[in-house]
Predict the structure.
Amino acid sequence: MTKVTIEDISRQTGLSRGTVSRALNDRPDISQQTKQRVLEACKTLNYVPSYAARSLATGRTFAVTVLIPDLNSGFTRDLLHGVLSRAGQAQYLVSVIELGSDSNEARDRLRMLSGERIDGLVVAADLDAETAARVAETLGNRPIASTHRIPNIAADVLAPDYREAGRLLARELAGCGGPTALLVCAECASSRALSTGFRDILPTAEIVEVRRADDLGALLSTRLAGARGIATGGEKIAAGLYCALLGSGKVPGRDIAVACFGDGAALERMRPAVTVVDPVGAEVGRRAMDVILQRLGKMRHDAPEFTEVAPVVRSNASSRLG
């Protein structure tokens, strides 16, 4: 089979070879309509771009790396889907480095990160100062988009609006009619924002921080007397809560209202069904990748920004007592 070239795309679209080339390289001087026209022609002709040729013409590698803590989090998996989706549209390759929970192990794994091989970096992990310094040294002035503020690095930050998520959880429980509402979450910075939002709506709510989902059994025996509504932060705590509730004979939606913040796809499979406030990780990932592309394409010259992405409520089954 004869290899399809830019000349073939040019003939198919009626555009000049230079315009086709600039469209394929996602240049800002080419309109979205023209880019779409070129992409449709590429699909029709089964055109496969040469990354070597594009790199030579633009000085880019057309690759990005994503740093993640691990793949156990639904938010992380959703974020990766979002990055991959937007990167695929721009014909970028994506590599992933899983840092793990140990700082020393994370710094060892960062040796795989090479600034010469990538155009930008998406950070979905909370980096300490030493790890951040290594990232800054490796990346130089390449664009970075992160879900957390990074010590001494000017990165665009795109994060779930945790305070608004707390408000949404509280609103789901506000009508449960009981004297007590309880928020159970992990010990971390995002949980503090979640707690603040929860108390914006329910000022007298009790906040309990736990280190492990296994601690929920003891929690239920001491904290839930009289409570009619409970909210959780994170899928692991939600799963542990459900097991503990059902083990104690309490049925979510019948005996107690439940709302959970976390990955919608995972939590919506729980039975009885649970109300989910989803941090929309895929949307965060798409926006993070888009910011990097805008910086690379010189479409943005402003200072890095902090952007909060609004969560959404996916269902309302067990936050309503029947």
